[in-house]
Design a protein that fits this description.
Blueprint lengths: L4 H13 L10 E6 L3 E10 L2 E10 L13 E9 L4 H8 L4 H12 L4 E2 L5 E8 L5 H21 L2 H8 L2 E2 L1
Antiparallel strand pairs: 1-2, 2-3, 2-7, 3-4, 4-6, 5-6
């Protein structure tokens, strides 16, 4: 990743911090920064399993399912581990939270790709490689806010909250 994108990434998170504060109050927020991804992970726990979603930037190709033109702005739902009872409840069931998210997002015109076989269960992404620096924070923050709409409309946050015992 170009080093000059760090300021734009920070500006993006500053733009979305306040609008997303109250919907996330029932989720544990953790900043993630490594060579492959930088962003925020919102999670809840049930026994040894964790479910939630992430907003951020995939910095390398193939760091997440479908990423081919890094850096890409990303919103994704996850349930870990992939063979857990929580994964079966939220991802594999026909009317589970992740399948509803994928279905609702398609209807809303901002589709999440369903990946029901792994811990990253649904992904929405867009390359920002060619976005000019002066537009980067605006484009990326708008994309992330659009990713939030299907999460809310599909009842994803409520279903994850109901299926888990607490922030984790």
């Amino acid at each position: 990743m170009d080093l000059d994108r760090s300021a734009e990434i920070a500006a993006t998170f500053e733009r979305i911090r306040r609008p997303l504060r109250w919907p996330m109050e029932n989720f544990r927020r953790r900043h993630v920064a490594n060579r492959q991804f930088v962003g925020y992970r919102f999670s809840r726990v049930r026994r040894q399993s964790i479910a939630g979603f992430c907003f951020g930037f995939a910095l390398r190709n193939d760091s997440l399912p479908g990423i081919t033109e890094s850096p890409e702005v990303v919103g994704y739902a996850f349930v870990e581990p992939a063979n857990s009872a929580l994964h079966r409840d939220l991802v594999e069931r026909p009317n589970g939270a992740v399948r509803r998210l994928a279905s609702m997002s398609r209807r809303m015109g901002c589709p999440f790709e369903l990946h029901a076989d792994g811990p990253v269960a649904a992904v929405r992404h867009r390359s920002v490689r060619l976005v000019p620096n002066e537009l980067f924070a605006l484009v990326a923050s708008d994309f992330l806010m659009l990713c939030y709409q299907p999460l809310r409309a599909a009842g994803f946050l409520e279903r994850v909250t109901k299926a888990t015992t607490g922030p984790g």
